[in-house]
Structure prediction request, 274 residues.
Amino acid sequence: MDSIVKFLLDNSRVLVMLVVLIIWIGIFGYLWKLDKKVQKLEEPD
Amino acid sequence: MKTYYKILVFVILSGVCIAGFMVPIDFIPGLGERARNLFFHVPMSWVAAVAFLMSMVFSIRYLMTKNMDFDIKAHCAAEIGLLFCVLGYVTGTIWARVDWGTFLKIDEPRMMSILLLMLIYAAYLILRSSIDEEEKKARLSAVYLIIAFLTVPFFIFIMPRVFPGLHPGSADDAQSPGGGPVVKNEMNSTMRIVFYTASIGFVMLFVWIYNIRVRIEKLTIKKLRRIAI
Prediction:
């Protein structure tokens, strides 16, 4: 763990990239879930 | 929306997030590492332009056919276009604060043109929400969106290149007369690949969000009609 933290401290660009990637994965997951929810609502009763 | 499309959007934009930070870039004079912003900031305006074009096309189709589906599509495209326009503006102002020392520069044509576009499309949303009668709302919205789009090429493509400003490619761009790195595509090949991939990826993301938004709007109308009966 310490070596990862040290690596991220030395390579701050990688750290920012990871943050952006996590945000993107979160947005993607939300959109995916929303799509599924709408799909369910569209199904005829 | 097909599953493979969603996975493709995920792969492309994840790749852009990684490449946008990691690939070695040519240093554009005055920008340095901040040039990486190009991969995220510029596609926002591209997507907004595509969305506004779609809203105009669907508005024309609505006026020709009187099919309410086209009204919904035009409205959703304009709404999401405005969202991307705001994102482009906000990311631009943050960059401007660092590079030019201010969040808002009134004599910067590209900044002002995006701000005016935002106001035009925000006014559209206010106009639309103020009309109750469905057909009147759709007709007025369609006419407004067609006229509003006429300003888009002027504000996004012409004005920033004709008047002097701080953006690369402005009329008085001393570092690269006749057009800066964005206009003349003077980015190196790696930057260009990431930039165009980002633009395609964000347009694909817009199409997905737009698809969900249209479906939600249709469901809402269906529910409202059911309640009315």
